Amino acid sequence: MMERIATTPFGGGRMTARLFQRQQDAAERQERLRAGEGGNDGGCADKWQLLRALTEARQVYGLGDRTIAVLEALVSFATARALDGREAIIVFPSNRELSLRARGMAPATIRRHLAALVEAGMIFRRDSANGKRYCRRDDRGVAEEAFGFDLAPLALRAGEIFEAAEMARAQDRALRALRGEVTLHQRDIAKIVACALEEGRAGDWADYALRLAALAGGLGRRAARDVLAPRRDGLARLRAEVENAYLSSLSEDEMSANDHHDERHIQNSKTDYPFEQDGHDIKQAEPAETEKAAPERKMAISLTRLKRLCPQIGDYNPNGIRNWTDLIATADLVRSMLGISPDAWRKARAAMGDAAAAVAIAAMLERAETIRSPGGYLRDLTDKAARNVFSVYPMLQALEKPRR
């Protein structure tokens, strides 16, 4: 005969059939676990890992972040690190202490979230006759009976919660990947259309722009998968059309542009970095009186070698990077994609020189995944250049080592 399979709520709280059934199911599950019939799911889990998993899967259970915060406050009153659902886990905090651990949440708000936790089946109420929370102890101080909130249902659902959290993580990864695809398609289509319009290419570019606006419109940051997936497919088809139209508009001369055509050295009075042209060093002229004060020169770099070390920047110039002017213009486009402000770009060119700043952008593009703040990174390089302690060579050398 099972003891106390149901506890009715104190005061105006109603006893429902679903609550009664949950309490009965929990009591039967506890009996099986105590008898060693639980299998792999023992109804026991680390309380903080379990809370983290429930936070990840909170949408599955219809729980808000503040409801999770109240549950975390309740769990913090459990003395053991592990929650073992084979027995009742009663915590009996006062309203004041519960409010303090819930970051000062108002009592009325706490009651609302406690009701949500009971409704979700994460806790049970174990109310005393007068509705107060307390623990009755024997002469030795051992708890005989406690009244408050029972955390055993949370522990008993640990396996289910961990599984739901893993599924939520997988869905989140898939959703982030889908959003990334949509963003890339939008960006590539927009830039190709803008480039074609600027260059006066033949084609119905205005229609492409309108179709892009229709596919990209109304996509908020929280757009669901069922909304993003068809948009992604439509954008992929439109991108194929736009790319084919742009390639069809290119002349034979543009398609066979030589990387070494019209390669020339870009000089800037602010820079002190030599670059190679046709395999030979070209050094900038310096006034004789400042020659001794000039910083030590670094190894030169040719445009051909730069494109070998930093191939990605070439993808952003449809005509290819044939000279230093092309590189600087392409770097101006790439810096905007990296989130670098025009002001940071202007200061970098003033401090480093146009060519050196463009080389820095090309090197940053190769390492974009590892640079958390490209704008801040470039400003740091600019500060070094202003102090005459910056060189593009170490950045390129770092890119060359993995290839070796």
What's the layout of helices and strands?
Layout: H1 17-34, E1 44-46, H2 47-56, H3 65-75, E2 82-84, E3 90-91, H4 95-101, H5 107-119, E4 124-126, E5 134-137, E6 143-150, H6 152-156, H7 158-199, H8 205-216, H9 225-249, H10 252-255, E7 275-277, E8 280-282, H11 303-309, H12 324-337, H13 342-352, H14 354-366, H15 374-386, H16 393-403
Antiparallel strand pairs: 1-2, 3-6, 4-6, 5-6, 7-8
Helix pairs in contact: 2-3, 2-7, 3-5, 7-8, 7-9, 8-9, 12-14, 13-14, 13-15
Give the key terms:
two-stranded antiparallel sheet, elongated, Arc Repressor Mutant, subunit A, 16 helices, single chain, 404 residues, 4-stranded antiparallel β-sheet, alpha+beta
Question: How would you characterize this protein structure?
Answer:
With 404 residues, the chain is an alpha+beta fold. The protein folds into 3 domains: 17-156, Arc Repressor Mutant, subunit A, CATH 1.10.10; 171-249; 275-403, no CATH class. It is 53% helix and 7% strand. The protein contains 16 helices and 8 strands. It has helices at 17-34, 47-56, 65-75, 95-101, 107-119, 152-156, 158-199, 205-216, 225-249, 252-255, 303-309, 324-337, 342-352, 354-366, 374-386, 393-403; strands spanning 44-46, 82-84, 90-91, 124-126, 134-137, 143-150, 275-277, 280-282. Strands 3, 4, 5 and 6 form a 4-stranded antiparallel β-sheet that branches. Helix 7 runs antiparallel to helix 8 (205-216). Mean pLDDT is 80; it is low at 257-299.
Distance between the termini: 75 Å
**What is the oligomer described by this structure?**
single chain
Stretches where pLDDT is under 50 for at least 5 consecutive residues are 257-299
How many distinct beta strands?
A: 8
In DSSP terms, counting alpha (H) and pi (I) runs of 4 or more, how many helices? 16
Shape: elongated
| Rg estimate, integer Å | 33 Å
What share of the residues does DSSP label as strand, in percent? 5-15%
The overall pLDDT average reads 80
What is the succession of H and E elements? Answer: HEHHEEHHEEEHHHHHEEHHHHHH
Outline the biggest β-sheet: 4 strands, antiparallel
CATH class wording of the largest domain: Mainly Alpha
Under the CATH scheme, which architecture of the largest domain would be assigned? Orthogonal Bundle
Going by helix content, strand content and strand pairing, the class is alpha+beta
Structural domain tally: 3
- Helix percent reads 40-55%
> The CATH topology of the largest domain is what?
Arc Repressor Mutant, subunit A
Domain Plasmid replication protein C C-terminal: 304-400
Protein name: Replication initiation protein
Domain Plasmid replication protein C N-terminal: 26-195
Organism: Shinella kummerowiae
